[in-house]
Amino acid sequence: MVEITNEQCLEEIRGLTNDFDSRVNMDSTFIDSLKITLAQPGNSFRGEMDAPTNEIITKKVIGRGGYYFHLTTKNTGIYFIWHSRDTGKFIFWGSEYNVKQAMGVIRYRNKIVAQRELESVPKY
């Protein structure tokens, strides 16, 4: 986990989302709220964890249209979650406690999805 300024946090998110491009599937109210929050002086935290190497599991962890990332963002109060295909990482931004909480939620979801996929493999 790395401590960064709120300004750096916003710039990182802007860069990854191509300045909040509409293809990223983000609600404009959410974007406005995020910009207001991160315009305040202070610091945020960025946490990273390995995404599954299996693309099917990764997609199911994220959810259709980012459903589980959006839900986790809302329920844990973090600022944002991103999957970097370049690095094979899930990236989280927010307060230290909330980032740790969100990472735990996604880690657990990854475990559940991987178990379901393993159980669905036919046994001969």
Poorly predicted parts: none
Q: What characterizes the major β-sheet?
A: 4 strands, antiparallel
**DSSP summary, beta strand count:** 4
Strand order of the largest sheet: 1-2-4-3
Beta-strand percentage range: 15-25%
Q: Indicate the percent of residues in helices.
A: 40-55%
Oligomer: single chain
For the record, give the distance between the C-alpha atoms at the N and C termini, rounded to a whole number.
43 Å
Counting helices, strands and paired strands, the structural category is alpha+beta
**What's the number of helices?**
5
What is the overall shape?
elongated
Radius of gyration: 15 Å
Q: How confident is the prediction overall: mean pLDDT?
A: 93
Topology as H/E string? Answer: EHHEHHEEH
Description:
The chain is an alpha+beta fold and 124 residues long. The protein is built from five helices and four strands, in the order βααβααββα. It has a four-stranded antiparallel β-sheet with strand order 1-2-4-3. The longest helix has 24 residues, at 96-119. The radius of gyration is 15 Å and the shape is elongated.
Secondary-structure topology with pairs:
Layout: E1 2-5, H1 6-16, H2 28-38, E2 43-50, H3 55-62, H4 67-76, E3 80-84, E4 89-94, H5 96-119
Antiparallel strand pairs: 1-2, 2-4, 3-4
List its salient traits.
single chain, 124 residues, alpha+beta, 52% helix
Give me a quick take on this structure.
By secondary structure, this protein is α+β, with helices and mostly antiparallel strands. The protein is 52% helix and 19% strand. The protein is built from five helices and four strands; from the N terminus they run E-H-H-E-H-H-E-E-H.
